[in-house]
TrEMBL record:
Transmembrane segments: none
InterPro entries: Lipoprotein_NlpA
Signal peptide residue numbers: 1-22
Bilayer topology term: Lipid-anchor
Localization (cell): Membrane
SUPFAM superfamilies reported for this sequence: Periplasmic binding protein-like II (SSF53850)
Keywords: Lipoprotein, Membrane, Palmitate, Signal
Pfam families: Lipoprotein_9 (PF03180)
GO cellular component: membrane
Name of the featured protein: Lipoprotein
Source lineage: Bacteria, Bacillati, Actinomycetota, Actinomycetes, Kitasatosporales
Coarse class of the protein's main subcellular location: membrane
Length: 289
């Protein structure tokens, strides 16, 4: 059974978070399945707790739990979260063993801003970022007077602006890369931007002409990126693969290594391809950072 930690806000006060974790049965004691801080010494028979956003990460983990984990000797404990801060906080504090929700640019920024030391273990999949609209059928309809909602976190905001620039909707200053902000837009073609928390973007579609939405949140909102997006990121050469991550020092936890192997298995590749039909694509292999 999954343990649900559903938080709509970005990060509650530490006390409130601790109470929520206690209510959900989370235990930071290394002898009871919490983060041990010493991966090599971890008991391989204890459950491995993984914080994951619901779609597609927790779904992929559930497939592993239901079909592969028992035979591999892995007791997998899936903890669902619904924002981009709590999963890293849980891992850093030792309240869960691992997380599965982010890509390298986001993690690099989080570690730098928060002083954490979380590291990637294995790449699993890519969720192409897309531009969506309730009212428009083509990106060409966006122009003077249009407002586009974009993610407000540092890495996904730049990624969103690069998507718009790649499709000719705006122009960006040379060399800004994934660090782009609206201040780096040199030609907006009359388009304005509203920066919002990523999880709220699907709900914003009725309030704006269009929104750039992360793949997992699009799927949760019953959008089909491969069909519904006005424009969609290219998968080839994309640096935004989502990976399994742990606190530094826990990479050699035998349970983590087992899960990493299962997440890159042929069975998981087939599950991703069959289930998401191009809206999520396998991106297996060692992370680049």
């Amino acid at each position: 059974m999954r343990t649900n930690l559903r938080h709509g806000a970005v990060l509650a006060a530490t006390t409130a978070l601790a109470l929520a974790l206690a209510a959900c049965g989370t235990d930071s004691d290394p002898d009871t399945g919490g983060g041990s801080g010493d991966g090599a010494a971890a008991d391989p028979t204890e459950p491995l707790s993984v914080a994951a956003t619901p779609v597609p990460q927790a779904e992929i983990l559930q497939f592993v739990k239901d079909n592969l984990a028992e035979e591999a000797g892995l007791d997998l404990d899936i903890r669902e979260v619904t924002d981009y801060v709590i999963p890293n906080t849980l891992v850093n504090d030792g309240d869960v063993d691992a997380n599965f929700f982010q890509h390298a640019p986001y993690l690099d920024d989080f570690n730098a801003q928060q002083g954490t030391d979380i590291v990637p273990v294995i790449n699993v999949h890519l969720e192409p970022l897309g531009l969506y609209s309730n009212d428009l059928t083509s990106a060409d309809e966006l122009g003077d007077g249009a407002t586009i909602a974009i993610p407000n976190d540092a890495t996904n905001e730049g990624r969103a602006l690069q998507l718009l620039a790649a499709n000719g909707l705006i122009e960006l200053a040379d060399g800004v890369g994934t660090n782009a902000t609206p201040a780096d837009v040199t030609e907006d073609n009359g388009i304005t931007f509203q920066e919002l928390e990523a999880a709220s973007l699907p709900r914003s579609l009725e309030d704006f002409d269009a929104a750039v939405i992360n793949g997992n949140f699009a799927l949760e909102a019953d959008l089909v990126p491969a069909e519904d997006a006005l424009v969609l990121e290219e998968a080839e050469g994309n640096p935004y693969a989502n990976f399994l991550a742990v606190k530094a020092g826990n990479e050699d936890d035998p349970r983590v290594q087992t899960l990493a192997e299962l997440l890159n298995s042929d069975e998981v590749r087939q599950y991703i391809e069959d289930t998401y039909q191009g809206s999520v694509v396998p991106a297996f292999g060692a992370p680049t950072s």
